[in-house]
Amino acid sequence: MSRLLHTGQVIVDLVMALDTLPATGGDVLAQSARFEAGGGFNVMAAARRNGLPVVYLGRHGNGRFGDLARAAMRVEGVEVAQAASDGKDTGLCVSLTEATTERTFISHIGAEGDLSTEDLARVVPRADDYVYVSGYSLLLEGKAQALLDWLLALPREITVVFDPGPLVKSPDSALMIALLPRIDIWTSNGPEALAFTGASTLADALL
């Protein structure tokens, strides 16, 4: 059976709801606050709930946030390929949602920001697998080159799924140019597709 091999990052979100952001140096009370597994976790949970086996290839930390991330993946039935990283915890994203529904993020990268050739070798992709790649991964110094080399060495019958994220603003980056011919499925939204291609319509962006 096909699997989803997720090479992105699972982090922990501190989600807070408030009326509006305070001015610099100010203070405000939030209506709610909670910790949730986030980042790549959401894609993996959706895949599992639709019956697809999932393997998380990324790293995760040795601490309270790593524990939370692993517990969430365990509940969803996600297989975790790596052991917990020593000396680092999983990263944190503070997600602030205003009454207008506008969201503001402040992120700190943890153990998930690193990934080596040896880490990736722990899982052997099969011909019917889907390999999911996040554009954020290609911005992480401790992960990008090893991941790119691994992706470009995959057999062509393995499907590579790409979510560009911030790389929609960097279509001419060396890493993006190297990866682009290997992408089979592109998962951006409409505005991202237009930003990346410079096209004026979605029909043109799809060409």
TrEMBL record:
Pfam families reported in the protein's UniProt record: PfkB
Keyword Kinase: yes
Recorded superkingdom: Bacteria
UniProt keyword terms in alphabetical order: Kinase, Transferase
Keyword presence, Cell division: no
Domain Carbohydrate kinase PfkB, first and last residues per copy: 3-205
Signal peptide bounds: none
The name this protein goes by in its record: Ribokinase
Naturally occurring in which organism (per UniProt): Pseudomonas antarctica
